[in-house]
Amino acid sequence: MKRIPVQSVKGHSPSATETLRKLFVLREIERQAGLFSVSFSDAIQPAEQDDADGCWRHLQSALFAGVIFNRLIRRHPQVRKLLELPDAERKSPILHM
What are the boundaries of each domain within the chain? Predict the structure, then answer.
């Protein structure tokens, strides 16, 4: 079984390491948001063709990407500030699934 490579994030100083970690998290947030958007868009065509299984397949993929996005945002409050998202205590229909 092939292992998934794990990326190490370490800079020349603690400050550089923190910056690299933020960039890593921001890249992953961007990737998950893109996956959500594409999967949600892909669900429209099967829905219009009455293909419930095809629609649900894409919606489940979008939901999974949304969950990962939400977990990343919750674990990294400094990223929440960078993205100008509401505080975790405030209710948001998107970020509090």
Answer: 31-97
b/e 30-54 (16+ beta carbons within 10 angstroms → b): eebeebbeebbebbeebeeeeeeee
Task: Give residues with Cβ within 8 angstroms of 50, minimum separation 6.
Answer: none
* Dihedral pair phi/psi, residue 9, rounded to 5°: -120, 100
> pLDDT digit string (tens) for 30-41?
999 999 999 999
Counting Cα atoms < 13 Å in the Cβ hemisphere of 86 gives 9
Measure the CA–CA gap between 4 and 52, rounded to whole angstroms: 33
pTM of the model: 0.70
